[in-house]
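Marked as duplicate of an earlier ticket. Keeping the data here for the record.
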Amino acid sequence: MQQEPWGRWRQQFRSGEVVRLVNAWYRRVECPACNVAVGRACRTPSGYPTDHHRARRDTAGPPPYEEWTKQGRIPEIRRMPAPDLLDASRAAQNDFGVDQPIGDAVAIVRHVLANQLGIALNDETTLDRLDAAVRALALARGPEGSADVITVLATQLVGMLTPSLARADGDPDAVFAMLIRTQVDRIRRQQRAEQQLRTRET
């Protein structure tokens, strides 16, 4: 059985020339989401440049990578092995009947849960392995797909924090800031303790 093609990312696509080609491809049409003109980057509601909105990508259609390759504008595409999280994402999509961004988010969360002991112990090997797995998935999806996954993960995080946020007296950002500070302070205390232990050993 032939392996299903995955994503649109290849190592060569990180070059500045390909980024320029892709940007020009999407920007040849107006964005239905933010109404930005042809040739300009999409904008957030606050007016800052952002990744191309999905509506604009759908209107423009997928970039013609193969045609660009034949024209010699980008290097020949090398086939690369699919990352493990990609298979886990497909499994989640089939199990729950969800779309790709949610499947990716489920795969990432499951991967974290499976390694939570190593994370709790701040094991560098575990953290490096998680970094590599998520990075491979993000590169496979490209910047647009990665943005979708981050949105889904952030939404899930808010959903899990809802009970705490409900007790925040109308200030959910304060609760989130407190959780981040608590985690950062814990890690810093652990790092100081490890540094003191190394100093004593020397």
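See parent ticket for discussion. Helices lie at 16-26, 54-60, 65-70, 84-96, 100-114, 116-120, 124-166, 172-201.
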